[in-house]
Amino acid sequence: MAIVEQENPLVEGLERTPVHPTTLIIFGGTGDLAQRKLLPAVYNLAHEGALPERFNLIGTARRDMPDEDFRNFARESITKYSRRHPDDKVLSSLLSRIRYVGAAFDDPKGYDEIARHAGEMDDEAGLPFNRIFYLATAPGFFETIAESLGAHGLDQRQSAEVRLVVEKPFGRDLESAQALNHALLSVFDERQIYRIDHYLGKETVQNILVLRFGNGIFEPLWNRSYIDNVQITAAEDIGIGTRAEYYDHSGALRDIVQNHLLQLLTILSMEPPVSFSADEVRNEKVKVLHAIRPPAVEAVPERVVRGQYAAGMAEGHDVPGYLEEQGVAPGSKTETYVALRLAIDNWRWAGVPIFLRAGKRLARKTTEIAVTLKPVPHLAFQQSGSLGVQPNQLVLSVQPNEGVSLSLVAKIPGAKMRVRPVNMEFLYGTSFMSQSPEAYERLILDTMRGDATLFARDDEVEAAWGIVDPILTAWEQNPDIPLPQYPAGSPGPPEANALLEGKDWRPL
Ligand code: BG6
Fold it and tell me: Which of 248, 257, 384, 385 gives 20 to 30 Å between its CA and that of 102?
């Protein structure tokens, strides 16, 4: 272990750079996200010594309860969901810095209370803390909370920063995203707003940038002359669980494609930024989003396939179909699967088909990007006994089995010139011997450090909605567009194969 650490001095987890004293205020403090992700992430930051030395947390939600009950809730959440077993000392110290405000999000008294608590915390320390308001509520409250923060003078402060973190979904189409941007920007400045897409906090997603821009060998190949096609998959084996209320109004296109998959695509296809400053990176991402040609509404049936899971098997058990899930509207037309073909109209990518697919209750959980290179112009090894010669493929595996693999054709040992594909692999697990931080840890830390590189800018979310909007319109205007069912536990509807025009989806 010691040797590995010496060889890899950067395997340190999260950086412990000094961060200005901060009060984090979580709206939706008793909700599912806070429980499963945010509170455990804050604990892990504390555990790593990455939190600011002076740090407070205020949870706020409708339910009324004393501070002590919220601390118990936080303790249980952390114990159940943290990636590491909590250390009693670290946990107790963190819990002692937590308070709670119970009020409806449109109740002015709640904001007075938040201001009072946060003010007391500043007074105790004798200096103004930065304040981060984290909107982890249902999206219907985002505008109300932002406006109320403004109305209570909580949007700015002298000699300390105020930031607003906004969870997804950011709007439900282009128009509502524009309206939400407008509402937030009428209270906060863009530099204060951090729109979360937790995929950007994943180590493997950031590694795509490092792979592309830290190694000389890929850039010469990273274009239409060498790349045949790109496939991005976000497959999940889980169903919608208890989230029908949200999911039945969302569907796979809004839930995964508009944000996570388009983010992966921009990182894969953007031009090298001049620096890794927030605006340089986001300028390049926005440029490539603008180069993606949204499908025409009439072309949607040929370019996009949707599906809905039927009853089937998952993890060895029978599972119900989407329409049988609790809370789903009878006869719902919400898609739990979507596959589409896009094109990027710029010099680097013109003519390279880009295939995206996402779905629930598929055969297994995997998120990956597969970049397939063009085949060699002439294959001289056509001897019998050669096995499945395929063009080289670079697979960036986001999760699980995080890593990168490159398929090569190699000679099968022996007297004959027979060949078969083999893989060259880098796996995080074996190369770094350390557990990667959870996406939310990195992202919460970045909000405290004031680094917005891994957050979406206003024009970026709007550009992404612009790409999926015609698809939503087509489905809305034409309910007869097929919505094939696929059995839970399968690779999705076979109709999606037609999009590939003779190529194959990566096996699931
Ligand atoms: C969320 C979606 O944004 O991402 C969920 O709302 C989905 O439906 C989740 O399950 C997937 O995230 P991850 O990190 O497990 O790939």
Answer: 248
